[in-house]
Amino acid sequence: MKHLLSTLDLSRADAIRILDIAEEMAAVGTRQVKKLPALRGRTVVNLFFEDSTRTRISFEAAAKRLSADVINFSAKGSSVSKGESLKDTAQTLQAIGADAVVIRHGASGAPARLAATDWIDAPVVNAGDGTHEHPTQALLDAFTLRTHWSALHGHTSSGSDLAGMRVAIVGDILHSRVARSNLWLLRTLGAEVTMVAPPTLLPHGSNVWPCTISFDLDATLATGVDAVMMLRVQGERMHDSFFPNTREYSRLWGFDDARLAALDATDSGETIIMHPGPMNRGLEISSAAADSPRSTVLAQVANGVAVRMAVLYLLLSGDQPRPAPSDAIRPAGL
To answer: Which residues form the Aspartate/ornithine carbamoyltransferase carbamoyl-P binding domain (predicted)?
Structure first.
């Protein structure tokens, strides 16, 4: 694996390998010494042209736990604000010896453009590009789903997929790179996906996507799902009116207290509620739902570190001979 740009590029075997290594990386968080020597001497650059909290901090934590040096680059306060191009920025990173670049960019396709050029000779990880994809978010969501699915069926997660799992992805599909990456990955892993949204928040061409399209959240929940993934309403990307008002949106497509109560009345706790964050509490999800025992919001954040550790480990190991993950992920100094 040279780059991670899209979940469409991942085969079932590739995806399961990442999730299996992430499972071993997650075990590191339970140890007294959490720092590993796997990437000692390597430099990871977080190149963020858009604001981020969870993704940037997660990648920074992942790289540091693997003993890599980390450089955090923000477009604000840099030469980008003076008009510096992506090419010049990339060549600067090449000159300082970056071994991997994690890039978030507002333009769809920017990470692929960076990876396809000779501007920088380093693995590129897409940390979100425009409304295109966010592959590591999909991987951490899949990791969370697999953990739940395995516990539900009483078997180990390692080596398993999501065959037979039913996942509803609800909300602003049109502007969501998370929805796209999750769709491709979840289908690769065998899950059944239903996209639920108002017609105005579905992309053109979504009718041919490998999923079921629904405009009715209550009807979808009534059919029975194993996980409900609520998406943030991305007001910053909306330049038109996509729904009458926030009250109407919340009533029809938000996971509110009433829907939580209805789920509790018919389901013993097997259905989980997910959200990639940040959340608009009271709009796409109520506080009661976000903080309920069904919620995996904080688990997703924790799992993100393990998944990104796995991705960086695989990318920076390259094609060189390396020990098995169970041998490589030992506390530094041991």
So the answer is: 2-146
- Identify the bridge partners of residue 72 per DSSP, sorted by sequence position: 46
334 found inside a domain: no
Query: How far apart are the C-alpha atoms of 98 and 71, rounded to whole Å?
Result: 9
> Phi first, then psi: what are they for 313, rounded to 5°?
-60, -45
Give the structural domain span for 104: 7-133+304-328
Q: Annotated binding residue at 42?
A: no
Same domain for 100 and 143, yes or no, is no
Is 55 annotated as ligand-binding?
A: yes
DSSP output for 283-332: TTB-HHHHTSTTB-HHHHHHHHHHHHHHHHHHHHHTTS----HHHH---T
Of 15, 6, 305, 16, which Cα lies nearest the Cα of 135? 6
46: which DSSP letter?
E
64 is in an annotated binding site: no
Residues 6+ apart with CB under 8 A from 206: 173, 195, 213
Is residue 177 a known part of a binding site? yes
Asked if residue 275 belongs to a known ligand binding site, the reply is: no
Evaluate whether residue 2 is within a structural domain.
no
Do residues 150 and 214 share a domain?
yes
- Residue pair 313/280 in contact by the 8 Å Cβ criterion: no
C-alpha pair distances (Å), 67 with each of 21, 48, 120: 17, 21, 22
Shared domain for 70 and 207, answered yes or no, is no
Q: Is 154 annotated as a binding residue?
A: no
The annotation status of 330 as a binding-site residue, yes or no, is no
**Cα–Cα dist 93/267, whole Å:** 52
Burial class, 293, CB count within 10 angstroms (exposed 0-12 / middle 13-18 / buried 19+): exposed
- 65 appears as a binding residue in the annotation: no
| 149, 115: one domain | no
Q: Is 333 left (phi over 0), alpha (psi -120 to 50) or beta?
A: left
Q: Residue 320: what pLDDT?
A: 46
Q: Is 104 annotated as a binding residue?
A: yes
Q: Are residues 181 and 226 in the same domain?
A: yes
40 is in an annotated binding site: no
